[in-house]
Design goal:
The structure is a homodimer. With about 700 residues, the first copy, chain A, is α/β, with parallel strands linked by helices. The first copy, chain A, has four domains: about 5-295, Rossmann fold (3-Layer(aba) Sandwich); about 295-455, Succinyl-CoA synthetase domains (Rossmann fold, 3-Layer(aba) Sandwich); about 505-580, 2-Layer Sandwich (Dna Ligase, domain 1); about 590-705, D-amino Acid Aminotransferase, Chain A, domain 1. Chain A is flat. In chain A, strands 9-8-11-10-12-13-14 form a seven-stranded mixed sheet, sandwiched between helices. In chain A, helix 15 links the parallel strand 18 and strand 19 (about 435). In chain A, helix 6 (about 195-205) runs parallel beside helix 7 (about 225-235) and helix 17 runs antiparallel to helix 18.
């Protein structure tokens, strides 16, 4: 059976057993029963308890073995030590899925962790989809399923929510009941021993009832699976997530909470951005976006039109929009003329359109119809201040009227609280997000526009460069065999050559005479660098001399460099000096590197050399594999990009050559999993060409990893 | 009579007349009457209307002349053309203050502007404090005053609110009624012809009923008065403001709205920060902070303790706090031991303290008491998730209990909506801000901590440097007389000398022989620069040569530079060349400049030369006069400050010398109002000394300004 079929049985069960069902109110085994009944479950429900008797009028099954074969779903609310035997018995009747509500596993320490691993192995051996342990349960209101011990029955809707925190499930459920928001699926993931966020994304991505997916996670279990599922799902529907534990304090709290390793915030930022997941920092934003995405169409461009009956809120909204990716666009001339036909002369006809404090509902409706009709406008925000003459509910009707027919996203902000309460409820009921203040409205529209751009971006193109992977692996394996974690200088140059990376002409000279011969071959001026596998920071031993113009300078400097290195690092093996071609004039230095993340694999970084990376922290990041588009972006996301583009008539650097080196590093990072981190530093680039002038690679030798 | 006495009569009137009072419901002149009566006004209220009759049982006064002499307050709701004659008549009976609700003045164009100027002159001539025109009115609920046509009577409280937008007044009033929030004073400023935000700050700063001042402004009328009042008031009580119209789109909307010039956002940011005003971007934050500041004591340090019954929300809170200026501090060992005495073993004892999902109110209370007792802790945030076993209202009581006795700020976040509604109301009633999600709670505590720091910062110290101001003014006046807007090179050097600013040794050489003599006097190597009052960008004509090492180089280059300048700029007067001492080795280049803001005066800027200012936009700003502390800060607020501090064992630059130059520029900017902008660029600085290597000043000649 495929995972998809199993998850279908899990979400749409026809037969459900509650193991540890109880007749005593307050017990979890009782709440699950009443929740299932209260949700209107139309399939067969079996309370199971060795004590027998009846629960809510149903005869209790004493033995799991008596349950029907091929049971769709079993919900376990039994003491911890009964969980494993129960699942053994359930496996015996061919159960398809289980929810383990019981706590006391990974989250309590080593013993619990071991028990959880046993459950996991058992479920995997029998292809049982297991949710939890240590979770609240799952709901599918449209199918009459509430297999949880949460208080309250949410209505059916088009929003799916999954959460690693049961407490957040509880809070959000209470909040959703208050706001009358419905769910397509509602899942408390618990410890994620079997079913994890990637499985949920995969299933919910194909679930016709789900229009928007919300998630709260503290860590990702399988980075690669998560990225693959997220990439595919975000093409079709929005995924909005909170990743908690992203700061030092948060990560510390998280690791004690679930034993999860939170991972670096940078990596998650890159993972979410590259897969199209919309990331929010707080729960309020999660819900604002859920309502926006589940009710309104996407704006097909950045132009926001604001219609208001008051100046101040209009200005505030324009400010917020101007600081966002949206544009407070000029309306077309035709629109302004049409507005002038009926609006009073003291109205403001450009955007925001201020129809003034005495505006009635009719004026709102005519204005909205004209503005919505303007092809320049991609989204509309209607502001209302409860002035004396405003018709609040009638204006809400006008907004609903326009929203229904215009095909563009329409949002409302009815300012205040008491007098606008009824109108706000009317708007929400009609699927028009309505806020008390302008900011969250603008933020929602901005997120939808960003998602529109992501959804409509061209299909990513991945390049493959010819390379001699075997040659590179040979160098790596030799280092592994010698237990040398650092691949530097001439061995590292081998790897560069294997990938066809452009490097400065370099010759290893074992003596000063060889150095002069090499310099003649390369052409003056040249660079001399100490060559030693043991000295990775060459400058620290005065091991680099640039711009040597003749044989005399080469001779003297060779002797000086090698003598100094031997004196300062008597332990090091000194092979001689590398003689290298000088960088062409007008060259710029950039750094291209990667570091492997435990969860998500190689993370590439790019920045300008020296102070820009070190002091100004002007660095951009992307996870491998990088598409051609990603390589284009990583170069342009730094502030100092302007320096590469060229100042005051200077020619831009050869960006194509630079992006190619980045793409080759991405390929190399995936080809050579033994390399834990690597840095091309500096990469020299001018308007003609780019070359990798120096490189360091660090292996993660087996023992180091454990 | 002083402004303060007049404003007292305005806010605490014993006699109030409503000019244009009406018996017809729906008319503004009727609403003002019913609002005054509804607010429980205990003084004498006079409806005035030439038609006579009665309104709400009161005899209408037909003629303003029949009102009592020395009337405290008159509220005008009459047609525009009647406003001026009415005020004339009111002046005749010695009215102390007026509110002009009537619109149709500055906001409608030139005619209105002229009329408004007449009102202003009239009021000023008779020392009448005028609010408006084009406003909603004013309220002082504790004194039974509601001199407005707004809907709804707010209760008395400790929050004062003034707003340039009447619409925002309406919205906020409705919101406050819904949230049961009271006001000490509530003022719609309207067009601010007489009473403006600076007057309000001044009055409310001394108003014993007001604990927190909120303001919404689109522009500041008098920058200097505003800064002076704000500085004084913020020492005593928090001032929280929105400045709208800070973006291009917002400013455009604002200028059409009230005819106000919005001013640059940068300047307002500097003005607010330097005077201690807490600036927020949106209305929701304005109110969150108002509640926090008006109910809780200030935290006396950054350490936030979080007590929670659930992990996820605890982690989210730790994340948010870690990204703020607050610290999720480690609790003291004694506290952890005390907690271990009664908390279950599976609780988390460090911060956030997770007392787990089965926590009852008693466990919350004991935990809160212990945590609040820890001297490490400066503020407390209590999180509650409505789990099955939680005692929601009882926990609210426990929070109130701890908050009352501990003397530290206590905030609550009861997550969800329906189940926590009652507890949330209880907390708010008891003066404990309670939020639905953690983010606004952390933001509020952070703002209070920042205000604590501001309030307790040392008194600013202003330095005064000896200078020959007359000499500087002489140079300026000569340029004014010659109508030359640019003061450059040797004239500019005069100004530097007048202020005792360190400059490189410089001699004007009229011939190549003079140049060599000067070079010998200064000492080789030297710099040669073309000297011409007409050439401000010397490099453009190849007019700068550095590092000239002997007489031969000086001779050749003098001839080359002057010949090239004559060829390229035949119009320019060439005085010769400046011979200048070379910058010492290891020198860094910084830029110190100022530009005069129409509202707030000279704004100083500081940054590292070249790319840092131009491309990285790494610049800091402060308004003059800078205190010594400000000079310390402006240097350290840029990212590239690290370069001045010195990398890799390099010595730090002489910061004292640098800060002195900045302070002298601040003094110069205030001394010489004719100078519109000036730039010391570059200022050369190393670990020993700083010197101003080049300078440009631009005058605003009279005609240019008009």
């Amino acid at each position: 059976m495929t995972v998809k079929q199993t998850l279908h049985a899990f979400f749409y069960p026809e037969t459900v057993a509650v193991i540890g069902a109880s007749a005593s109110p307050g017990k979890i085994g009782h709440t699950v029963m009443t929740n299932m009944i209260g949700a209107g479950f139309r399939g067969k429900l079996f309370p199971v308890n060795p004590k027998g008797g009846t629960i809510e009028g149903m005869a209790v099954v004493r033995d799991i073995a008596d349950l029907p074969r091929g049971l769709d779903l079993a919900v376990l609310a039994v003491p911890r030590d009964h969980v494993e035997p129960s699942i053994q018995a359930l496996a015996g009747i061919g159960v398809k899925s289980v929810i383990v509500i019981t706590a006391g596993f990974k989250e309590v320490g080593k013993d619990g962790y071991r028990l959880e691993q046993e459950l996991k192995a058992l479920c995997e051996a029998h292809s049982i989809a297991m949710l939890g342990p240590n979770c609240l349960g799952m709901m599918n209101p449209a199918h009459g399923v509430n297999a949880s011990f949460a208080a309250g029955q949410p209505k059916a809707g088009s929003i799916a929510f999954f959460s690693q925190s049961g407490a957040l499930c509880v809070a959000i459920l209470d909040w959703a009941l208050g706001e009358n928001i419905g769910f397509s699926k509602f899942i408390s993931l618990g410890n994620k021993a079997v079913i994890d966020e990637a499985d949920m994304l995969g299933y919910l991505g194909g679930d016709a009832q789900t229009k928007v997916i919300l998630g709260y996670i503290e860590n990702v279990e399988h980075g690669e699976a998560f990225l693959r599922q997220a990439r595919a799902v975000c093409r079709n529907k929005p995924v909005i997530m909170i990743k908690a534990g992203t700061t030092a304090a948060g990560a510390k709290a998280a690791s004690s909470h679930t034993g999860a390793i939170a991972g670096s915030d940078q990596t998650y930022t890159a993972a979410f951005r590259q897969s199209g997941v919309i990331r929010v920092a707080d729960v309020a934003s999660l819900f604002n976006l859920a309502q926006a995405f589940s009710t309104q169409p996407l704006p097909r461009g950045p132009n926001l039109a604001v219609v208001t009956n008051s100046g101040g809120p209009g200005i505030l909204t324009a400010d917020i929009a101007d600081r966002s990716r949206l544009t407070v666009a000029e309306l077309s001339q035709r629109t302004i003329e049409r507005l002038q036909e009926f609006l009073p002369s003291y109205a403001a006809f450009y955007n925001p359109v201020d129809i003034v404090g005495d505006a009635d509902a009719k004026r709102y409706r005519r204005t909205l119809d004209v503005v919505a009709d303007d092809p320049v406008v991609h989204s509309i925000l209607v502001l209302l201040t409860p002035t004396a003459s405003v018709e609040i509910e009638k204006t809400a009707e006008a907004v609903i009227h326009t929203a229904r027919k215009c095909g563009k996203p329409v949002f409302a902000c009815f300012m205040g609280k008491t007098r606008v309460a009824r109108a706000r409820a009317m708007l929400m009921e009609a699927g028009i997000p309505c806020y008390a203040f302008p900011e969250p409205a603008v933020r929602s529209i901005e997120s939808m526009y960003e998602y529109y751009l992501w959804k409509n971006r061209p299909e990513p193109v991945y390049a493959e460069f010819p390379c001699d992977r075997e040659l590179a692996l040979k160098v790596v394996r030799e280092h592994e065999a010698r237990r040398e974690p650092e691949i530097v200088e001439f061995q590292a140059q081998e790897v560069l050559r294997a990938y066809g990376l452009p490097t400065p002409k370099t010759v290893l000279a074992r003596s000063s005479e060889e150095a002069v011969a090499a310099a003649v071959e390369i052409g003056y001026p040249v660079v001399l660098k100490i060559a030693s596998p043991n000295i990775s920071h060459k400058s620290d031993v005065g091991g680099v001399k640039v711009n040597l113009r003749d044989a005399g300078e080469v001779l003297t400097n060779f002797r000086e460099i090698t003598a100094r290195a031997m004196r300062m690092r008597p332990d090091a093996y000194i092979a001689g000096c590398l003689v290298q071609e000088m960088a062409p004039p007008g060259v710029k230095e950039v750094i291209i590197g990667f570091k492997r993340d435990e969860q998500f694999g190689p993370m590439l970084m790019f920045g300008l050399g020296g102070i820009y990376v070190e002091i100004m922290k002007d660095i951009s990041f992307k996870l491998a594999p990088l598409s051609r588009q990603n390589a284009f972006e990583i170069v342009r996301e730094i502030k100092s990009y302007m320096l590469l583009k060229g100042l005051r008539g200077e020619k831009p650097v050869n960006f194509a050559a630079l992006e190619e080196i980045i793409l080759i590093m991405s390929q190399m990072a995936l080809d050579l999993p033994q390399v834990w981190e690597a840095e091309f530093n500096p990469v020299l680039i001018n308007h003609e060409r780019a070359m990798v002038a120096d490189v360091r690679m660090t292996l993660h030798l087996k023992e180091d990893r454990e």
